[in-house]
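Marked as duplicate of an earlier ticket. Keeping the data here for the record.
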Amino acid sequence: MLAEALHTQREQLIKDEFGQNVYELIQNYTDLKSKHTIVQQTRSRFEVKSIEEGSIDTYINLERINDIQFINKFFETVNEKLPLDGIFIGCVETTRLRKVRIFNKYPWGISHIYYFLDYLLKRVFPKLSWTKKIYSLLTAGRNRVMSRAEIIGRLYSCGFEVLLEKTVGNNLYFFVKKNGKPSFDTHPSYGSLFKMRRIGKNGKVINVYKFRTMSPYSEYAQEYVYKLNKLADGGKIKNDFRVTTLGKFFRKFWLDELPMLYNLLKGDIKLVGVRPLSQHYLSLYTLEIRARRLNYKPGLVPPFYADMPKTFEEILASEKRYFDAYDKSPFLTDIKYFFKAFYNIIVKKARSK
């Protein structure tokens, strides 16, 4: 009777504090009455640490992730307490939802100024080495601005798989399950300049440098976004919400590619050659093309911009034609592809998306 009373009290507290819609959402996907379900509203991972080992299979935290200072450490602690396939439910105010809230709260003009200053302090400052201390001093790392892509990427990097996303009120609620151990990545892609792990010649992993066009931790969310949206024409992931507004501008004018000149000078890539791909994207290729790709050094200017294929199958055919031609005449093939790509980019305005 006491346990049932405590469960009823917990359910009522969720309704009173967060509303009927949040209660129903959680209740639909988990058993709030189970003794293996724990509900907290905490910013401290030490409260999670205090949970008895092996006592839970579902952990719910109703504190916004934005207000947790060391987010990944918190996620890693939750991961540690859950069994494999255990459920973690949490919430976050995303960049988009935050913008809606600010513009609904303040009059026109004031809302624009407030939003700009808020974005600058809580979104930009944490990412720049020379402003991180200012951000920490003013906010203690709380009320951080985070995109949907960043929070999903952080969850995947900490050993979780997203099962469901649902917006209720001004928060995005996520339902994830533990599918492995955290990566404990000490150098995640977070700043404006970042390196991407790509597969080079002979299967060697190389670090390709670019200016950021996606939200932080986006590389961890690639497989999830692919499963949601598949590929668009041109071989890029369709409706890729990881790309930022500024990132779209950078891609349009090739500004994001400039740091790759370092890879060119270093010898990781050559001027003309197939794109250096991530392990996940490479896994989408046929075994024949995947194996053949490993025989060649990737390039700064891919044959894609010479042939302009639309479908994924056309991309594979384009790369095969390039390999066939390169095997017969490496120097002349690269010259031909370079000038054809240059024409398409300058005259026909071919652009990356």
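See parent ticket for discussion. The chain has a mean pLDDT of 89.
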